[in-house]
Every structure is written in structure tokens, then in C-alpha cells.
Amino acid sequence: MEFFVASLLSVVLCGWAATPAREPNIIFILADDLGYGDVGCYGQKKIRTPNIDRLAEQGTRFTQFYAGCTVCAPTRSVLMTGQHTGHTWVRGNSSAVAGRVPLRPEDVTVAELLKKAGYTTGVVGKWGLGEPDTTGIPNRQGFDFWFGYLNQAHAHSYYPDYLWKNQERYPIDENRNGRRKVWSHDLMTREALAFVERSKDGPFFLYLAYTIPHGRYEIPSDEPYSREDWPQVGKNYAAMITRMDRDIGALMELLRKLGIDANTLVFFSSDNGPETGGGIDPEFFDSNGPLRGKKRDLYEGGIRVPMIVRWPGKVKAGAVSDAVWAMWDFLPTVAELVGVRPPENIDGISMLPLLLGREPKEHEFLYWEFHEGGFAQAVRMGDWKAVRKNRGRLELYDLKQDPGEQRDVADANPAVLAKIEDYLRIARTDSPNWPVGNAGERSKNPAERKERRPPVARG
Fold it and tell me: pTM of this prediction?
């Protein structure tokens, strides 16, 4: 009898041991033009973000995390492909040569990798990586479900008369003929929550790419700030961020209600630094915090962004990390997490060890390039940061001593410059859509110039 009980216990225990834990759900929340200093846990004093701050209290806040680029579309391409802007296919919002460039069938996205691991995949918000009927639309890049704006110009209106749901237009009749009844962000939150409800048995990947706080600065109400003696555009900007914060709170509450909170890994970040157009003054909110620069700059204020990671019991709660990593690390990180092999041609490094409290492999170099207003490049090597504008001389900053990039120390450090110059010779591959010789040229196609001057509401 004792032998039988022992044998049965052994079988049961072995069965339990052989049953793998379910893979975690993964949510990546990406704000749009949210500056490094625009949320409370990164120093914001005027705008209230209690739910984002709670994510930081329950997870780890990273102080040296970088966007893929300093504008929208290339950052999103970097995030999806794990390749920095010297290699990823979409290197700008619009190409002077080819207009809006879509991802190709051979571009392997995070969503495609996760589908191989059995994930249900969804994206809600702003895509920017493929126009209708191209190879770049989300449903042809690994996503089972898609809702939102396909291109950046359409996303400039928060009261569009249509959005996209999978491969069909989703009409919003209440916004036709100049009416402003349905705010697109509310629809996005509704669809994101519904996707989580449908996918709760998991595992699932939700890429929630909010358009907040990108201009235009349209909002149903500035109620939280209506008594402040601020410019109206400032009230709208603050209220937009607060409403996004509110809906992130609703998402986290849903995870708790469904009983999947502990098994959901949540990332929160922004696609680039703060905007200065549309009447907004980033200095009013100190949107870039202690950093120099803003959107369309390769100084720190244009590319260093918030990053909060929360996974109860796995990622340390209430921690602050100065580890240096970037958006192209997301793909290999989740690939290691779910046990799939990432593509060979990526630039990212898995930061899963970092998230779980161990020492990760470090980047020797981080690289950015930007093609608006002339060709610009930036490199981070350890604490050194180099910036080159219009193929001119390299500026050099010691970020440990000078995080605000106020003192160019290039002349005093020729050996550092030489090493960075050597790296720049191999940092990138030429792109037919973003040739360096034509960098900064404006498209001659009027439809492609809309990104610079927001249209009413057309894709």
C-alpha cells in the first residue's frame, strides 16, 4: 500500500512538474509625443497621471530607455522589427522618393513571432507602417485584430469620420459633415478592453498605440484643468494625458477583474519626445525634463522616453533602473520570454535578464538616423553620446556628467570620436527609400505633405 501511494504521488508530482506554466500575456502601451517629463513618476508637476505612476510603483521605471527614432513611423518600425533606423525598412514618416513606405512581407514583426508561440495578437491605435491594401497593413504583419488609424496624417484628427477595423473602413457617422461627437480615443479604449476580454484565456499580445498627446489638441473636455489659469491648448494637452491615464487604469482594472493581472507583462513608453507645434509649449510643462531637445531632435529630449515595465512577482516593484536599452530590444526580449528564435538580422538584445533582476548583455553602441531637414545621426557608446547634423562634424557629450548635453567635448576626446567614427562606417545600410544624398528633401506629391500640416480627417 505504501508503495502504491508513493508511486501515485510520484506520478502526480511528475505530471505537475511536466506541465509548463502558461506563457504570460504581453501588453505594450505606446503614447504618442509624450515627453520624458510628461508623467508624474518622471517629474511632471502639473499634469496628474496616478495610474501610470501606479504602474511605476508596481514595476520598474527605467531612466535611460530610448525610442527607435525621433518621429512616429520609424520608431514603430523599430519596435516591430527589432532593427534600428540604420537597418529597419521604414526610416521616416514619408520618403521623398517613394511616399509612405510599407513594411514588406519579408519583414518579421514581433506579432509574427508571438503567433508562432501560440499568441492571439491585436493592435489598437496608430499603425503608420502600411497604407490600405499594401503589404504593411497590420493583418498582413502578424496581427489577428486591428483597429485604428493606418497613417499619421489621418491620426491628426481625434474626430475622424472613419477608422479601420481589420481591412475594412469603420464609419463614424456621428463625425461626418464637421460634427464632433465621437472622440477616437474612446473607441480605441473600448476596442482594447474588448480584445482583452475575448482573449483572456490567452496567451495574448496587445499593442496599444494611443495617439495621445499628439496634436491636434482636441478633447471632449478639459474638466480636470478647467480652473487653471493656463492657455487653452495647455489645458487640452494636460487633459488628454489625464484621460489616457484614466483609460490605462481601466485596462489594469480589467486585468484584475479577469484574474489575469499577475500573468500579464505590461510595458509603457512613448514614440519620441514632445512636440512644439500646434500652439503647445513644452517648456510650460517641462515636458523634456532635464534633457535637451524635443521631437525631431536626436538630442536626448527627442529620443529618451519613459519606460515602465510591470509584471507582478517577476519584475521588481518600486525599482528605478539606469540600464541603457532601446525599442529595438523589445522583439528579442519577448522572443526569449516565449521561447522562439528571433531573426538573425536584428540589432536588438534580449533584456529579459534585466527585467528579471539579472545582468543583461550590454550594447556597445546604440544608433539613430533621421531624414527630415537634412541627414542626422546619433550614437551612444557607454556614457558618450555623439550627434551629427547634416553630415557635419560630430558633437560629443558625456551623459554621465552632462545629461542635458550642454558641453560639447569633442575636441578634448579624439580617441572617443575615432572609435565612434569607425562604428559609423558600418552602422547602417543604404536605403533606396531614404538615400542620404536626398535626405531632408520634401516630397513633391501634395498628398505626402499632409503629415506636416494636419488635414481635416482623411487617410
Answer: 0.91
